[in-house]
Amino acid sequence: MMNQVLADIRKDPALKKEDPARIRTFVSNRILPVVDFPRMTRTAVGPRWRQASADQRRQLEDGFRNLLTRVYSGAFSGVKDYRAELVPSRGAAGATPIVRTRLVSKTEKPVDVGYRLAKGANGWQIIDVNVSGIWLVQNYHSQFGSILANGGIPALIASMNDKNSALNHKQ
């Protein structure tokens, strides 16, 4: 599946030019169906998630999804000739197995990408992504922790909205 996604990105000039509307459509249609975004958001927010109202939870999920879409859309322009190779795993499959891949290119350095999975109502879905040794959700959990400690859920929502607004102006 990863190689098909890479091929689709290479074929779509609007994605390479980081067209925001096209990227949102692509992510919604191709990426989000295999990602458990509610769980990723809950994990990134941590224990304070339980204190959030239903409306705040929706705002957190929307803000986090938009933030990740905007921040990582820049990677689309760098896809070039990468192809994904499965990296054999020695560990036993548990409740949250990790699928390890390596993006290889004829002209660029390989990039290791891992996907932590969990089985839910919609089958196996991605709940975290590791790029070159950095777990995405864990990284955001650390960033969000200081914001939550200083201003709670409203401050985190405001911070995500500010970041998304700033990223919108760059595009």
Description:
The protein contains six helices and five strands; from the N terminus they run αααααβββββα. By secondary structure, it is an alpha+beta fold. It has a five-stranded antiparallel beta sheet with strand order 1-2-3-4-5. A hairpin with a 2-residue loop joins strand 3 and strand 4 (123-131). The chain starts with a helix and ends with a helix. The mean pLDDT is 86.
Strand content: 15-25%
User: Which series of helices and strands comes N to C?
Assistant: HHHHHEEEEEH
Please estimate the helix content: 40-55%
As an assembly, this protein is single chain
Please report the distance between the alpha carbons of the first and last residues.
28 Å
Spatial order of strands in the largest sheet: 1-2-3-4-5
Q: Give the helix tally.
A: 6
Structural class by SSE content: alpha+beta
Secondary structure tally: strands = 5
Radius of gyration: 17 Å
Mean pLDDT: 86
Largest sheet, described in full?
Answer: 5 strands, antiparallel
Structural shape? globular
Unreliable stretches (pLDDT < 50, length at least 5) are none
Map the helices and strands.
Elements: H1 2-11, H2 13-16, H3 20-31, H4 37-45, H5 54-72, E1 83-87, E2 98-104, E3 111-120, E4 123-131, E5 134-135, H6 136-170
Antiparallel strand pairs: 1-2, 2-3, 3-4, 4-5
Helix pairs in contact: 4-5, 4-6, 5-6
